[in-house]
Each structure stands twice: as C-alpha cells, then as structure tokens.
Design a protein that fits this description.
Blueprint lengths: L4 E5 L6 H11 L4 E5 L15 H8 L2 H17 L7 E4 L2 H16 L3 H12 L8 E7 L4 H11 L6 H19 L5 E4 L5 H23 L1
Length: 214
C-alpha cells in the first residue's frame, strides 16, 4: 500500500510543530495539511474561552470523538493526488486524545473508554493508511511531564495534569501494541538527531509513494 500520509504525533510540547516546520524547509515538495480542526471549522464553533469546559465537561464522548475523526477525514480529502502529505496528529493520536478525555471526563477505565470511542469509530469510514511517528519526551511519565511543563508558558491546573498523565498512558499502550511506525524517545536524542530520523522516515515514505505508482 503506497504511503499517502505521514503523521507526527506526541504529547504537548514534544516539538511536533517545530519538526513540521523543519520538514517544510528541508522537503518543500511535501504537502503540509496541519491540524485536523483547521479543515472542519464548522465542527469547532466553541469560543476559545469556553473550549476547555466544552472539551472536558459539556461535550459527550461521542461528540468529541466524531469531531476529531470527522475533521481528520476532511483533512485527508485535502491531499493532492500523488503527493505525500504531512499531518499534525494523525488518526491514532486523535483516538488517543478522545480516549484520554473520556477517562478524565467520565471517570472510566481505559478499557471502557476505548470501547466508547471505538463505538463511534465503527460509524465512520476506515481512515487512510499513515506512516505515523510518535515523539515521546520520555517513556517515564514524571520526566515527560517535567520537560513538557518547563516548555509551556501556561500553568497547568489539576484537570489538565490528569489529562496529560492519562494521555501518556494511552499513548504508551498504543505504542506497545504497534500502532506507530516509529517511536522516538526525545530525551535520548538531540534536535538534529531527531530531525535526521524524521527526514529518513519521510524519504522512505516518499520513495514508497513513487515506487508504488510506477
């Protein structure tokens, strides 16, 4: 199956935006599709000052999951024919986000939250294949959070801290089950080393794309 999408995934402040910018400079022929919500503004009409409360309190798991995955579907439709597109947070990451939010908001177990999210997934079309990269600040939660908070200009409240802890657990579960093509632990590598690994993954995906189309 030819690669059509390459996604950069990971927790907040893992450097996804920086790496996507570096990719755009190093490989200008790639199509950058950005974040999913940019392609479905009609699904994200909550005022910015109310977004956290909608996300963690007033929305249902079905509403949030649908908004995330439908936005992803519309983003995928924006890919130009024959071009590998780079996306910020791919399908697996959006699923992880929905599961973690469900756990925090509805106080569910990971298993029950995953079942609730999968029930919504089954109503939607199968997502396109992605060559997905997971950028982890650290596999250790406490170390990951310390790095992330140090890079953030905003103070985290207890709800957001719990969400980040839960998201870390879900991402680790996904990584262990093989959902990501490549998992990189950033604390063990310099930014240049990380960028080099990502470029190699992109070049492999592009080679796969053109090799399959010949």
């Amino acid at each position: 199956m030819p690669t059509e999408f390459l996604s950069l995934n990971g927790p907040d402040n893992a450097g996804k935006t920086t790496q996507i910018r570096l990719l755009s400079e190093a490989r200008p022929t790639l199509q950058l599709l950005g974040s999913a919500h940019e392609h479905a503004p009609h699904l994200w009409r909550v005022p910015p000052e109310d977004s956290a409360d909608w996300w963690f309190e007033t929305s249902t798991t079905a509403e949030l999951t649908y908004s995330l995955l439908e936005s992803h579907r519309l983003r995928a439709e924006a890919r130009e024919q024959g071009i590998v597109a780079v996306i910020d947070r791919g399908h697996s990451m959006l699923v992880a986000t929905a599961i973690a939010t469900c756990i925090v908001k509805d106080k569910m177990s990971i298993g029950d939250a995953r079942a609730a999210v999968e029930a919504v997934q089954r109503t939607l079309a199968e997502p396109p294949f992605e060559h997905s990269l997971l950028l982890l600040l650290s596999r250790d939660f406490d170390e990951s959070i310390a790095i992330s908070q140090a890079r953030d200009s905003h103070e985290w409240d207890q709800r957001y801290l719990l969400y980040q802890r839960t998201l870390h657990d879900v991402l680790m579960m996904q990584a262990e089950s093989g959902l990501y093509t490549l998992v990189m632990e950033l604390r063990r590598s310099s930014r240049a080393e990380i960028h080099s690994q990502i470029l190699a993954a992109v070049d492999a995906a592009v080679s796969d794309r053109f090799g399959a189309s010949q």
